[in-house]
Amino acid sequence: MNKADRIFNDLSALHALPVCELNYKTPFQLLVAVILSAQCTDARVNKITPALFERADNPYDMAKLEQGELEELIKSCGFYHNKAKNILSASKTLCEKFGGVVPSTVEELMTLDGVGKKTANVVYAVAFGGNAIAVDTHVFRVSHRLGLTEAKDPLGVEKDLCKIFKEEQWSTLHHLLIHHGRYICKARKPECERCTLGDICKEKRYE
Predict the structure, then answer these.
(1) What local confidence, expressed as pLDDT, does residue 18 receive?
(2) Is 136 an active-site residue?
(3) Does the annotation count 160 as an active-site position?
(4) Residue 204 — pLDDT band, cuts 50, 70, 90?
(5) CA dist., res. 7 & res. 173, Å (int)
(6) Which of 83, 111, 152, 172 sees the fewest Cβ atoms within 10 Å?
(7) CB < 8 Å & 24+ apart, contacts of 91-100
(8) 114 Ramachandran zone, left/alpha/beta (phi>0; psi -120 to 50)
(9) Own/partner pairs for 181-188, CB < 8 Å, 24+ apart?
(10) pLDDT at residue 1 above 90?
């Protein structure tokens, strides 16, 4: 078994059926939630979005909100000024250029304000079933610890992972790495005794 298969199989055993932990009902709600999740936990976003989506759960209603009103609704997630600005702009673009429908390609998604490669990959993979690896802080950290990449930026990590793993594994791998980084391979106090990949971990925190 090669290294990629070993990592994928071990992570799959450690994290059964990992899924996106953001709460959403439509591609638009997912898009907004992912924008809000930048430098914020999914748990915090999930506390914010019920009231937000009760007020505006589609791009047409969202685009009608005043910036200050939206900021008040999302204030506790941090960086709320820029996030509100991007959500309003993206909503207006969806209404004006896409008929109120969230586009299903990474390229089109990235034409929306506030949507970089990571956000586009998440929406493409989760909402539309595409194959993509979104590199957040967890994916970045775990990929380096497991010796899968030496890239210094998320795009470089994404490219390396896409070369190593089969395309049909990408979206599942994305969630596996996130869950591993969030619940076991933590930034400050990794729970190495719970991990089965210690023999290939570059941090060598195992006894």
Answers:
(1) 87
(2) yes
(3) no
(4) low
(5) 9
(6) 152
(7) 91/59, 91/60, 91/62, 91/63, 92/59, 92/63, 94/28, 94/59, 94/63, 95/59, 95/60, 95/63, 100/58, 100/59, 100/60
(8) left
(9) 181/137, 181/138, 181/139, 181/141, 181/142, 182/138, 183/15, 184/14, 185/138, 185/141, 185/142, 185/145, 187/137, 187/141
(10) no
Sorted by sequence, the CB contacts under 8 Å of residue 80 that are 6+ apart come out as 71, 74
Q: Which of 10, 42, 118, 186 is catalytic?
A: 118
H helices of the chain, in order, are 3-14, 27-36, 42-55, 59-63, 67-74, 80-97, 106-109, 117-128, 137-145, 154-164, 170-183
For 136, the token pair is 């957040």
Q: Which of 47, 64, 83, 136 is catalytic?
A: 136
What's 22's DSSP letter?
S
> How far, in Å, CA of 35 to CA of 86, rounded?
8
> How far apart are alpha carbons 70 and 32 in whole angstroms?
12
pTM (2 decimals)? Answer: 0.91
pLDDT tens digits, 129-144: 999 999 999 999 999 9
Mean pLDDT of the chain: 95
